[in-house]
Design a protein that fits this description.
A hairpin with a 2-residue loop joins strand 12 and strand 13 (about 280-285). This protein is of the alpha+beta class and about 300 residues long. Among the domains are: about 35-125, TruD, catalytic domain (Pseudouridine synthase); about 155-265, 2-Layer Sandwich (Pseudouridine synthase). Helix 3 (about 170-180) crosses helix 6. The chain has helices spanning about 55-65, 140-155, 170-180, 185-210, 235-245, 245-255, 295-300; strands at about 15-20, 25-30, 45-50, 75, 85-90, 110-115, 130-135, 155, 220-225, 260-265, 265, 270-275, 280-285, 300-305. The radius of gyration is 21 Å and the shape is globular. The longest helix is centred in the middle third of the chain and has 25 residues, at about 185-210.
Length: about 300
Amino acid sequence: MTYPLDFPRALNISRQKAVFKAAPEDFFVEELLTPSDENAGEHVWLWLEKNGQNTDYVARQLARKAGVRDMDVGVSGLKDRWAVTRQWFSIYLGNRAEADWFRLGLEGVQVIEVLRQPKKLRRGEHRGNRFQITVREIRPDDALFNALEKLKKVGFPNYFGLQRFGRNGENLTRGEAFFEGRIKASRSQRSYYLSAARSYLFNLILAQRVTDETWNIPGATGALYGDPQSGVAPVSELETSVFEQYPGLVNGLRKNRMKLDRRPLCIVPDEFEWQCEENSLRLSFSLSPGVFATSLLDELFLLKNASGST
């Protein structure tokens, strides 16, 4: 089965072509998370700045440096590799000797702060992410400025970014093959396939709501496919009709006992500001965890990723 990845956009504008990630500094992300005031405990927390480095790779290197298991290193979220990012890492040391954290020797990694905390850092604990993104080779005009003003007021559709689906949607095609038993998958690959399948079905639901112009109703949500759960609104008729079109993905999710959840359809960015300089535009804004900055950018531009990453 084919999986189209060109979803309808809410802003009724002719999108300009734009280049982003021309350099890591063009995509800056800062994790919004405040540790407790208690600077004590068996877990070291490191506030790191990474330039062109993958979160998982850095976590593994920290485990080697500390002499602990990979599972003893915690993060709240995965950040883009082709970017400059600031985020917290936790390392369970127990009674082990303290390393010289300010001499990590990791290329592209700088330690900004070190403190102790009583617990491991868990996924999703941060309250959001602050972005500063520069797009280049654009033509600033009234249409673009009007679109920026509208986005600031109305928000944008909360699509999962194309990176969730892999290069050319391979996480979906390989996921379908895995669900049908045609290929095997590691635990991490299985997680990618399940996440891609749920995300794609959600995007299709949101795409229909964008087409119907019902995507930005206050409090509106879309289903993340799974078994019914107490306290979670049941699947609607529209959502059921979308699921019925992709039985391969649905059957795979059902076999793996995913739980029904819901995700907001509309996101209004916090502290949304912009600044133009000739043929470039710098955007600053904050988003909740799990919201893709590229989905905001896709409302405004036809993006060319200069880094070559997905």
